[in-house]
Amino acid sequence: MQGSERRVNLWPVPELPDVAVYVDKIAERTVGRELLGLRLASPFFLRTYDPKPERLRGLKLLAVSRLAKRLVFEFEGELFAVLHLMVAGRFRWDDKTPGTPAKLPGKLGLAGFDFTSGTLIVTEASTKKRASLHLVEGRAALAAFDRGGLDVQRATLAEFAAAVRSERHTMKRTLTDQTLLSGIGNAFSDEILHAARLSPLQMSTSLTDEEMGRLFVATQGTLETWRALLAAQPGFPEKVTAFREGMAAHGRYGKPCPTCGAPIQRIVYADNETNYCATCQTGGKLLADRSMSRLLGADWPKNLEELENARPAAKLPANPERSTKVPKPAKAPRAPRVAKPKPES
Length: 345
Ligand SMILES: [Zn+2]
Hints:
Bound molecules: zinc ion
Structural class: alpha+beta
Distance between the termini: 25 Å
CATH class of the largest domain: Mainly Alpha
Strand content: 15-25%
Number of domains: 2
Strand order of the largest sheet: 1-6-7-5
CATH topology of the largest domain: Helicase, Ruva Protein, domain 3
Oligomer: single chain
Order of helices and strands: HHEEEEEEEEHEHHEHHEEHHH
Number of strands: 12
């Protein structure tokens, strides 16, 4: 168990529900308010030269919205601030002295949007400064940011199915590939696949229509359920955490599946792991990722019963391979990499 938390990225990437909740909570506090000024603490944060940040001063904020995982702040006069948090970007809200710009945190502070109601602070707790701000004028300029993966919350089943089937990958990869689907990361992909009762290593191109329908419902349902849960928490969201009370599979290695009670399994890769329930998602089969299979050889348990006796396997050293992706599917079409079927007992 102790390996579970250690492996996971310290800074979980904000996923769609997190961004959606940021949008709502920021809008509640700032829409209709005047911007007193935009302070930039990091020269790398702002990626555009024109319009200048000074143009926003004294303008009223009309709306906050979401464009995939970007947040869009619409000011009077069709001036837009488009913000991407990337991995370690976060917001804080400081309204201790409304009307007076709040102090930006030393190393972390990227920018402060000083509204008459308080300061929206943007932070990034990483030496790699990847969060970005673009200031653009006019709706045509804003539309240029609308590209990449499908916004699954606004998609139809047909659009969703087309995106999922457009490239052949494992389902884990397809769900988290931002060029295919937007806003789903490691945590929510585990939850979606558990809800859809699909294997993380099932190939995206081999889903039946029935499975696709299940996946679509699970995707929209999981994201909306979590958005609502996060939105219901009081106050401003100061943290984005990978593990949340109530998740079914993600971050719950070894704990009982809430549906069937069997222990949640995992596939470890690079700094992450995929969690799934063998009983609910893979017909009882344990999935071995490539390097783990090699490492463990014949010792890799093939079913739940064997795993119970092989728990120390979880304490093996971290995956020596430096790959950053879920194991890639083979180039030639073939069955996903799953353990050979064996009788349950
Ligand atoms: Zn289960």
